[in-house]
Structures are given as structure tokens and as C-alpha cells.
Design goal:
single chain, alpha/beta, Nucleotidyltransferase, domain 5, five-stranded mixed beta sheet, phosphotransferase activity, alcohol group as acceptor, EC 2.7.1.170, ATPase_NBD, kinase activity, Anhydro-N-acetylmuramic acid kinase
Length: 366
Amino acid sequence: MDSKNNSKKDVYKVLGLMSGTSLDGLDIAYCTFKQTDAGWTFSIVQAETLKYTSPWQKKLKTAHQLSGDALVALDVEYGHFLGEACRTFLSKHKLNVDFIASHGHTVFHQPDKGFTLQIGNGQALYTSAGKPVIYDFRSLDVLYGGQGAPLVPVGDKHLFHEYDVCLNLGGIANLSLEVKGKRLAWDAAFVNMGLNYLAGKAGKGYDAGGAMAAEGELHAGLLKSLTKAYEPLRAKKPSLGREIFEKKFRPLLDKDTIALHDRLHTFTVAAAREVGDAILGSVGNRAASVLCTGGGAFNHFFMSCLLEHCGDQISLILPDETVIKFKEALVFAFLGVLRSRNEVNCLKSVTQASRDSSSGLTVGLV
């Protein structure tokens, strides 16, 4: 990669790919970025979510149970799937890109053991899409002793710095903010990962708008158990992942002696309180504007619980729907831009690594 050539470029056209823990689908966002004297500006020109078919949902949901050779095969298969999706998207919208920046899909995330795995083989993606690719944005940070997450705060710092707090409400809720010139961020709670799991028990992919949760009632015993499960996480602020959810939280949600609507209601309230406390604890006594993005921003019941818990100290800002839906894909496209310039895209202040890094593997960049 010719870093000198890339460092002089100030306009980029990038396709950002994001597949989250909620398994809603593959987010594809064609973004442009421009560097000016005042900093970076961006535009999401075209974006869509490619819903996963039932077979693909099953493959991704059960990937952590596969044998070694089967997981390697799925990594390559999913890489080709991503590449074909990109080729189709670019052809349909008659677009060209400098490169594709892909988050992949997380199968294992165990930074305490020194590894993380996002499948979606970059070489396979490259051969199928026919475009340069940057991928595997987390591994280097983990090897430097970091959590490998969250990575979105770099985008918050450069693209959304006008807000006091940036809150992402996906499978996992995380927030980031600037404190004395340093970007801090952490995972605060499980949101859609738990809500979608419970909605699945009713044969639904998700609880639209939080309607089912709103019909339920608070179950004091379940709320106490959920709050207790969050206690050690609140203190350590680890990177939350499927492993923690399945070990600590899913057994609590499987208690079918509690009505499903009540479980949804109580899980939502518990998550909103965790997120609210994280926000209030970080901003002190000052009023704060909170940018809300991710699928959870459309969950009216969750948002009302969050506001009720925080009171009038915070104002929840909802940007346009495209940014709400595709902010993560946008930011991974931007992480690719920084990587292509050999600039820092992973902050030790956020991940607790031993150093900042420019993370990501490249294929086809010259």
C-alpha cells in the first residue's frame, strides 16, 4: 500500500459494510468523505439493508458451534456472499468506490483470552466484489491488550463531535463522549440482543416500536436479577458480546413462568436504566445532548424509559433516518479511510489497549 499517495487524498468514496449481533441483515452504505481545514465531512449517498434469508440467519447464529474446518469454510462462504452483495449494490446504483470497508460478522469476541473473530474472509470478498477491501478492524487492538471495541467512537470524534454524548442502540448499547480532550467509550447494556431473542419466542424478528414490551408489566424479581447481572459489568466495563449474554442474561430471559410481555417490559426497563446511569454518570450535573442511532432508537418504549430515568437533564437527538440506520456502516467506511492513510483508527483511551493503532487488513490497495 502506497501510504504517501493515499495520505494526499482528501476525498474518498467508500462502501461500508456492517453486520451486527442482532442479525437484522447486512447494512451497506455508499459514503463520501472529504477532509477540510475544519475537519472531516461526510455524506451517506446510498444505503440499504440486505435482509438475511432464514438459512443465512441460521448459519450466522450457530457459527460459534461449528468445528474448526466448518468455520473456516463459512468464513470464506460469507466473504463471497459479502462480495456478491457489494457487486450487486454497486451495479444497481451505478457507483464506483475506492475500496470496501467491512466489519464482518462477529462469531467469537474474547479479548480477555487475546482473540476476536469476525468472519467474512477479506480475500474472498475481494475476489467476488472486484474492489479493494479493508477488513478485520478489531484483532490488532486485541493483540495490543485492548478490548477491540467499541470502534465507532473514532467516527464520533471526527464526524459527530458537536454532540455531548453519542449513543448507539444496537444489539448492545454503547456510548462515547469527550472528557478533557480524550475520547472515552464503553458498552453499557444489552438491548436488541435480548429484545430480539425474546421477540423470537413470539415468532417475531423484533418487537416493533417496543409495542409488546409496553403492554407488559414490571416484574420485580426479574428486574432485581438483571440488575445484579449487570453489577460486575458496570464496574469493569468489558466489551460485551454474545458469550456474556448467553452465560449471564439468557437464562434469566428463559424463565417461562414469567409472561413473555412482562419479560420484554422488564428487560427494556433494566437496559434503559443501565444506559441512563452510564450517561448521567459520565456528564455529571451538566445538561447533555445525546445523539441516538441504531435500531433501538426506533423502540419508542425503550426511549421513553430512558427519558423517564434521566429526567430533563438530557435531550435525546434523533438525526435523519438514514444516519440512525446506517451510522455503524458509515463509521466502518471511515475507519477504512483512516486505515488507508495509515492514521489512527483505534483509540487506546476507548479500548484500554497499550497503544493507539491503525487497524485493519488490506487486500488490493495500491
